[in-house]
Amino acid sequence: MPGMESITTSPPANPACVISCTWYDEDGKPHALDLDSISDMLQSGAKGFAWVGLYEPSDEVLDKVEEEFDLHPLAIEDTRKAHQRPKIETYGNSLFVVVHTAQVVDERIRYGETHAFLGHRFLLTVRHGASLSYAPVRARLEQEPELLAMGPSFCLYSVLDSVVDNYSPITDSFRDTLDTLEKDIFADTYKRRTVIRLYDLKRELNKMRLAVAPLQDSLAQLQRTQAQLISEEVRIYLRDVQDHAARVNDAIDTLREMLGTALSVNLSLVTLAQGETVKQLGAWAALLAAPTLVTSWYGMNFAHMPELAGRFAYPLLMLGVGVVCVVLYRLFKRSGWL
Asked: Taking the model in full, what pTM does it have?
C-alpha cells in the first residue's frame, strides 16, 4: 500500500515529549510512526489516520508538527503559551480545541490544559500541566477496531469523554468532605479549622467551575459546527459528553450553594454561642452586683447608717443579700440565662 513503507517496525526515535505517534490503518491496527514520516503518510494514498500525543513539547517539536500537519501558525502560537480559555476554533481544514483538565496531586487539585488539533486524517493532542495520560483511552480503542474505523473525530470524542469523566471523582470527594465538615459544624465546640477547610473547599469549587462551565459551550459548538471533520454518528457521542459535563457542572453549583449555606450556618451558630455566653456572663454579673452594691454602702465611713447599731443587723443584712441572690438566680434560670 502506498505510504506504508514510512511506518517503522521498531519504536521510532522521537523526542521524549512525544508520548505517542501512531498510524492506524483502515482495520484499526496501530503502527509506530516517527514525526518525520507524518506528512509522507498523509500525502500518500494509505488509508487510515495518525494520532500523535505530546506532553509539554518544546518549540522545536511544535515547529515540526506544524510543518508535518500543515497547522495554522496562530493555533500553534496558542499551544506554545498554554494559558488559553476553553474554546473551539476553525483553521482551514482543521479544528483547534482547548479544554481544561483537573487532577488531584498531593491532596490538592491541579489544573492543566489539553489542546487538540483535528483534521480529516489526523488527531494531535498536546497536554500541559496537570493532566492524566490518554494512553488508557488509546488502549481501549485499540481493543475495539470498529470504533477506530470511525476516524479521528471519534478519538477526539474519547479524549473529551476522558477529561469529563476525570471531573466526577473530584466532585465526589468534595461531597464526602462536605459531609464530614457538616458534622464538625454542628459539634458543641467551635473549630477554627472547620471554617478554614470550608473556605478552601469553596475556593477549589470556584476554580473547578471555571474549568467545567465553558466546556459545555465548547461541546455544544462542536456539535453544531458545519465542518465535515465531525461525522453525524460522532455528534451523538459528543451530545452524551455534553450531558455528563452538564451534570458535573450542576453538581459543582449544588456543592457551592451547600458550602455557602454551611458557612452561613457556622457563622450563625458561632454568633448564637457567643450570645449564650454573654447572657450567662450578664446573669452572673447581676448576681454579683446585688451583694456588691449593699456591701459597698456599708463599707462607707458614716456614723449614722440604717441598723448600724442593731444587735441582729449583720445577720439580717446577710439574709437579705442571700434572698436577693436566690430570687435573681431563679429568675435568670427560668428565662434561660443560666
From this structure: 0.76
